[in-house]
Amino acid sequence: MFGKGAEKTNEQVNRSEETTLRLSDDIGKIAVRIGDMADRIGDMSERILETQKIQSKNLELMQESVMEAMKMMGKQMESTNEIMDFIVKKGMGVDMIGFN
């Protein structure tokens, strides 16, 4: 009477141990995969950071270039205005020192 029940219980315990060992093995494999992914994420984050540093420097250089171009355009506008002023005054018969 107890023989079959004990046998069945032993089988369940053995299956439970096997299942636990398989689960433990699977968890170990998953942990290794997670570790690998974490390493890849770390590598990618380093690349992203380096790219941002390069882009930041490029942006800074671009801003400096644009500012220099704007200064040059401002000087060009001043020169153009002086020339236009000269032409208008000559057309009106006024010399550059304000006398007719």
Description:
- The protein starts with a helix and ends in a 9-residue tail after the last helix.
- The mean pLDDT is about 85.
- The relative contact order is 0.04.
- The longest helix is centred in the middle third of the chain and has 90 residues, at about 1-90.
- Helices cover about 90% and strands about 0% of the residues.
- It has one helix spanning about 1-90.
- It is rod-shaped.
- The protein has about 100 residues and is an all-alpha fold.
- Name the poorly predicted regions: none
Report the mean per-residue pLDDT as an integer.
Answer: 87
Beta strand %: under 5%
Specify the overall morphology. rod-shaped
Give the helix proportion (percent range).
Answer: over 70%
Largest sheet: none
Total DSSP E strands: 0
Outline the secondary-structure elements.
Elements: H1 2-91
Question: What's a quick, concise take on this entry?
Answer:
The protein is an all-alpha fold and 100 residues long. The protein has one helix at residues 2-91.
